[in-house]
Amino acid sequence: MSKVIAIANQKGGVGKTTTTVNLGIGLVSEGKKVLLIDCDAQGSLTESLGYQNPDNINITLSSLMQKAIEEQPITDSEGILHHKEGVDLVPANIELSGMETALVNIMNRERALKSYIDTVKNKYDYVLIDCTPSLGMLTINSLAAADEVIIPVQAHYLPAKGLQQLITTVSKVKRQINPNLKIGGILLTMVDKRTNYAKDIARVIRMNYAKHLTIYKTEIPLSIKAAETSAVGKSIYEYDKSGKAAEAYREFTKEVLDSGKQRNKHKSEYIR
Ligand code: ATP
Ligand code: MG
Prior knowledge:
Elements: E1 3-7, H1 16-29, E2 34-39, H2 44-48, H3 61-69, E3 81-82, E4 88-90, H4 96-102, H5 112-120, E5 126-131, H6 137-145, E6 148-154, H7 160-176, E7 182-191, H8 196-209, E8 215-221, H9 224-232, H10 236-239, H11 244-259, H12 265-268
Parallel strand pairs: 1-5, 1-6, 2-4, 2-5, 6-7, 7-8
Antiparallel strand pairs: 3-4
Adenosine-5'-triphosphate binds at residues 12-18, 40, 44, 133, 189-190, 220, 222-223, 226-227, 230, 245.
């Protein structure tokens, strides 16, 4: 059974793409078959896996969704790129920005991405969707296609309002479109362990949300090496394998693998 996980937060720059890459490749090193889907017209996931000019790629998520919408056949592995660290990728580029508006006028507009994912997911243990920083149609499509959503939160500020809005959206999608959707948990990212401020924020987030939602035990540290990986097209495990960020993403990967087994029923049912 494959599991589809959306990595979402409408706030920009919180570590969605970095988490998608390093959770994805982390799962590969645990023996899983993984497909990453770039669902952001910025193409940052595509770029951070080393495809420097996403705009020159012909077959992308946009064209594959278009085919799924038009019920045209999609050939085996069509458009899927194979990264040397073992992960597969559906790339994206600027064309996806047209999809956001095109979706408004089609039948079953919330399920276009799901229709595409349903054609490929049987080949994978995990499909991870790197969401765009908005709560528009592409993110709704990602939530409609997902079994679970992981929410990276940058431990630099108190995210109260934005986070609540995201949780409300997830609940709405669960009620109206995808009853199976769960919040996997909140992942604290870019935690600067040297400052009391970051530690305080991490503590406040845990205090406010841990009663209702899973907050992953692992915190991703602020790391220059992690920031550099996107430019080199490699995961943190290749780029700085014994560094703190690599260690944290390894731990986080294990938590995600374990969470399926020991999910806290009370928390997973919090969103209704
Ligand atoms: P967007 O909303 O634009 O899609 P995002 O949520 O996907 O952004 P990333 O692109 O993963 O966020 O990260 C934002 C920036 O922070 C990038 O420049 C990235 O290299 C950097 N970054 C990510 N994780 C860390 C980290 N642990 N420590 C320091 N910098 C990081
Ligand atoms: Mg991103």
